[in-house]
Each structure stands twice: as structure tokens, then as C-alpha cells.
Design goal:
Distance between the termini: 28 Å
Structural class: alpha/beta
Order of helices and strands: EHEHEHEEHEEHEE
Oligomer: single chain
Number of strands: 9
């Protein structure tokens, strides 16, 4: 991946989605690997589906988020989900994409296609990535409820935060251990992060 990848700002009607197939268990790779560290380095937001059906939902969000923010957006697809299957009913319970109003320095956010790599000028481009486009990314994640608390009670003391397939596995493990993961006054709550990068405050 070229070092300039994440800093590129896409044009008004275009977007870029990276389908990142990941093999944490080294099932078909020589070593286990994950790409979040590289994506963080390049300033690329990451969406992490927790099920096969969410490939569709998060794929649509990835396209919309890239078009809205100007960022390249990665879709993290792990081997257990890519090797699995699921019957999906399209169009059911689907929610329209919400595009938030983002104000940067008192002005409405508008992505600017910028392919300038000259010394000094590219520093301003990098600043735009982190100070403007990433602000738009976190606003989009909030407007579309990508990161949310999925279970909470009146006696919460411990919080568990998880993302993607790890979220599904964590909930299943808690259920197997006899913990209730629905909203019924249990002493723990669960928070789900679907947009794992950048981190929403």
C-alpha cells in the first residue's frame, strides 16, 4: 500500500472501499495477521462487521462514509465469516443513511479532492485528513449509531467493549457462562464498536 493512500481525498461523487480479508488464525496464511495497525498508520477508517449479513449493511455504510468524508474506508472481513454463510433477507429493517451536518472552524464541512504531494503543501493535506475528514467520520458514525451500547442495567459496574466478530464471540461466551447480556439490571454492560478506527471520544 503506498504511503500516500490514506491522505488522498476522493472527488465529490466517488469513494474508495478496501475489502480487507484477514486471517487471524493463519488458516490459509503462513502467519496470523491483521491490518488495523497499517490502516491506523495511513489514517484509514475501519468498519468491522460481526456477521455475514452485516457485510451488506456495512458495505453500504463504507461507500457512503467514503463519499461523505473523502477518506478511503476499510471493511475488515475475517476468515470465520468469509468462510461461513447466512440466509439474508434484503431490504428488511434497513435504515436510510444519515449524513450529519459537520461544522469545521465555523464553516460546513465539505471534502476537497487534493492530490498535492509537494513538500510543505502535503503537510496541510495531512492536517486536513486528521482535523477535518476524521471529524466527519466520527460524526457519521454517531449519526448512524455505528458505535452503541447494546446492553445496560441499573447496577452496571463493569463495561465490556468489543467490535465485529469479537463482539459476537464475546456475547456468546457470556451467554455460555450464564451471564445475561440483555437489559435487565445486570452488573455489566456491553458496548459495541462497529467503526473501530478512528476512535470516537
Amino acid at each position: 500500500m503506498p504511503s500516500s493512500t490514506g491522505i488522498l481525498a476522493e472527488r465529490a461523487v466517488t469513494g474508495v472501499v478496501i475489502l480487507s480479508g484477514e486471517d487471524h488464525e493463519a488458516k490459509s496464511s503462513s502467519v496470523p495477521y491483521q491490518q488495523e495497525f497499517a490502516f491506523e498508520h495511513y489514517g484509514i477508517p475501519v468498519l468491522y462487521p460481526s456477521s455475514v449479513s452485516e457485510f451488506i449493511e456495512f458495505g453500504l455504510h463504507a461507500v457512503a462514509l467514503s463519499r461523505f468524508s473523502g477518506c478511503w474506508v476499510a471493511l475488515k472481513l475475517v476468515a470465520p465469516l468469509c468462510d461461513g454463510g447466512e440466509v439474508v433477507e434484503l431490504g428488511r429493517d434497513s435504515r436510510p443513511v444519515a449524513l450529519p451536518d459537520v461544522i469545521i472552524d465555523g464553516k460546513p464541512f465539505s471534502k476537497v479532492a487534493n492530490f498535492t504531494y509537494f513538500p510543505v503543501l502535503n503537510v496541510a493535506t495531512e492536517h486536513q485528513l486528521y482535523a477535518e475528514r476524521h471529524v466527519a467520520v466520527t460524526a457519521y458514525a454517531k449519526a448512524n449509531d455505528l458505535n452503541r451500547i447494546v446492553a445496560e442495567g441499573t447496577r452496571d459496574r463493569i463495561g465490556i467493549i468489543s467490535a465485529g466478530k469479537s463482539f459476537a464471540d464475546t456475547r456468546q461466551a457470556l451467554t455460555d457462562l450464564g451471564y445475561v447480556t440483555t437489559t435487565c439490571g445486570t452488573p455489566e454492560f456491553g458496548s459495541r464498536r462497529s467503526a473501530s478506527l478512528p476512535i470516537e471520544p
